[in-house]
Design brief:
rod-shaped, mainly alpha, about 325 residues, 2 domains, about 0% strand
């Protein structure tokens, strides 16, 4: 339907001026062809009076038919071609309309897909940041906990705001947890009883960090939630996964990260292997030093992390590059 048909709202095609002109010329052409033929026939074979003989009328009909049939046949052929042309144009218009409809439907589906994707991201981020907020609260609670159970027989826990004394308790706690290094020449040698060291660390964490298990389980759920952004069979970490795992890693206090790294390898390795796999997938220990804050010595349990975790857990860590050779 063209613009004029759309304006009139009619389904009847409008006859254009040149189409009418062509019809008129065709009519005049036929008239001019037929009239001389009739005149010639009448002058040569006719008389002033109409014949009453059927034979003569039959001859006249054969004559007219023989003259006009080729003309009408040609006109019919032209009309057929014109009809085919109109049908071709109509089919072309139909195909174009179907193509526009298909394109519009495709655009609509793409828009819906984009809206669905945005909605899924919003849902993910809402849940992710809610979980991260809870993780930060647990992290703060763990780092601010005062280990009253430490063995200080000549001291009592202070409750009058002696923050320096509280801080000394916490520093002692971290020192006790990570052990010490052993050097032989230029090489680092781990403690001979490193399994005993891990058992001791596990007991120490369970005794003085009662909230730490809850913290570690929540972080594991967060990392699993990030992992769900990609297909289960995807081997490589996607950029989206990396972005959210970096946010989670950056929100964890460095001391908590060190305790967590040791805590995982302290546990049953079979049951905690999925946790370790996530650490390795997201290079979660890339920014973890092997020394305590403000200390110069390497710590044995942190060095054990370098042994038990795969290289991918440390990413492009400068701390790993600076490590002395293991003996």
């Amino acid at each position: 339907m063209d613009e004029k048909q759309e304006k009139t709202g009619s389904d009847t095609p409008e006859i254009k001026w040149y189409q009418g002109l062509i019809g008129l010329i065709a009519f005049i052409f036929i008239l001019l062809m037929v009239a001389p033929i009739l005149v010639l026939y009448y002058d040569n074979f006719g008389s002033r009076e109409l014949s009453e003989s059927p034979e003569q009328w039959g001859q006249f009909g054969d004559y007219i038919g023989g003259v006009l049939n080729p003309i009408f046949g040609f006109a019919t052929f032209i009309a057929l071609l014109y009809t085919i042309k109109l049908q071709t144009e109509e089919l072309k218009a139909t195909r174009e309309e179907l193509a526009r409809s298909a394109k519009a439907q495709e655009n609509s589906e793409q828009a819906l897909a984009e809206q669905s994707k945005i909605f899924q991201i919003q849902q993910f981020e809402s849940t992710f940041f809610s979980m991260l907020d809870l993780l930060n609260k647990l992290s703060t609670h763990v780092t601010n906990a005062i280990p009253f159970k430490l063995s200080f027989p000549d001291r009592q826990p202070c409750i009058d705001g002696d923050t320096d004394r509280f801080q000394s308790y916490k520093d002692s706690m971290y020192d006790e947890l990570f052990g010490i290094y052993v050097f032989y020449g230029d090489k680092v040698n781990l403690h001979p009883d490193f399994l005993g060291e891990l058992v001791r660390s596990k007991e120490y964490i369970n005794e003085y960090f009662s909230e730490f298990k809850q913290f570690s389980l929540l972080l594991y759920q967060i990392l699993k939630f990030i992992r769900s952004l990609s297909a289960e069979e995807a081997q490589e970490c996607s950029e989206t996964e990396k972005r959210y795992s970096n946010i989670a890693r950056a929100s964890i206090d460095l001391r908590i990260l060190q305790i967590l790294a040791v805590y995982i390898i302290c546990q049953d390795m079979e049951s905690y292997r999925p946790y370790q796999d996530l650490f390795e997938r997201y290079a979660f220990l890339e920014h973890m030093p092997f020394k305590l804050a403000g200390k110069k010595e390497y710590r044995s349990n942190l060095l054990l992390c370098r042994v038990f975790y795969g290289d991918s857990a440390f990413g492009d860590s400068d701390y790993v590059k600076k490590l002395p050779e293991f003996g």
